[in-house]
Amino acid sequence: MNRKPAMKRILILGAGGPPGINVIRSWREAPEPFYIVGTDMNPFHLEWVPADRVYLVPPVDHPEYLDVVAEIVERERIDLIHAQPDVEVRVLSENRERFPARVFLPRKETIRLLQDKQASAERWREAGIHTFPTVPIETPEDLERAVEIIGLPLWLRAREGAGARGATLVERIETGIHWIAYWRSRGVNWAFIAQPYFRSGVRLAIPLERWKAHRLAGPPADRIHLPASGAFRPHWNQRGDGDGARRAGERSGHPMRAGRGSAGHRGVQRGPDGR
Predict the structure, then answer these.
(1) What is the pLDDT of residues 207-241, one digit of tens each?
(2) CB atoms within 10 A of CB 183
(3) 57 near 88, Cβ under 8 Å?
(4) Could you give the CA distance from residue 70 to residue 182 in angstroms, rounded to a whole number?
(5) Measured in whole angstroms, how far is the alpha carbon of residue 113 from the centre of its chain?
(6) pTM of structure
(7) Nearest Cα to 191, choosing from 119, 129, 123, 130?
(8) Letter string b/e over residues 31-70, b meaning 16 or more CB atoms within 10 A of that residue's CB
(9) Which domains does the chain have, with CATH numbers?
């Protein structure tokens, strides 16, 4: 008698945001079924995740984050770990040896390069993929040099981070100077870069999936609403730093709990409603 192959079991980190939910929905459209487990550091995101099991985990910079994820991998017998937010991609990549599951990621050096906008721009320029300038910004003098090289307007953004982190349009040099000073006054010491601003009227985001240098998928999308990661709303919390999630957990009374009937977990505890 032929046995049916075991259902593949996937863990998606950062499942509660729109990209994570879209990824899960795409998996549900596959010709074969998957058992999907999702995690998020925000308790209010868990109710939206269309997974079979969801877990609330500590922020990615919490000392117990990796231990909690490792226990979920073991408990749920995970075959593949997919990290959706950039910050979790980096942590998963750097610590991939800790997990028995596959991660479907390129080399650590490649992840580091891709998440550094200045380094990746330099590599692309060397390869002839694009030639527009990228200027590192630390001081007002750097901004003046960027204006000489690029002109105005220009696009100022953090060197690392997703979701238009620390990004703003600079049409006057004073705007850029005050923008960086604002972040410095809040104790945020990001490195910034300046690049040309393209007046296309369309803000395209093109996520790419690749395997062995072959592009598998690349759906372009128009960002009709920029995420609240410092772009035009600098007073909002950055998703990756954990403060907002900690406050949300404190308000809910259950800063670390497992979702949808899952059992208690070290660092992830069942809520009083059993969910």
Answers:
(1) 655 555 555 555 566 655 544 444 444 433 333 33
(2) 16
(3) no
(4) 38
(5) 15
(6) 0.74
(7) 119
(8) eeebbbbbbbbbbebbeebebbbbbbbbbbebeebbebbe
(9) 8-112+242-252 (3.40.50.20), 118-235 (3.30.1490.20)
